[in-house]
Specification:
Elements (H helix, E strand, L loop, with lengths): L1 E4 L6 E4 L5 E4 L2 H9 L13 H8 L1
Antiparallel strand pairs: 1-2, 2-3
Length: about 55
């Protein structure tokens, strides 16, 4: 499991040992997601892909 900062944003990307990824602004929410394995790996993302792309641009 790991969490990395997405440069140029206020976003974090978490990666689980199962290969699932998740993007979130809140570090505590990111750890909750990672530690809830496997619950939460199929749910909705808290930050949409469109929002990530808009933030990076």
């Amino acid at each position: 499991m790991r969490i990395v900062w997405l440069p140029g944003t206020d976003l974090l990307q978490g990666e689980c040992h199962c290969g699932a990824t998740h993007v979130d602004e809140d570090p505590a929410a990111m750890w909750d997601w990672l530690l809830a394995h496997p619950v939460g790996h199929g749910g909705t993302e808290s930050v949409t892909e469109e929002r990530v792309l808009a933030t990076v641009r």
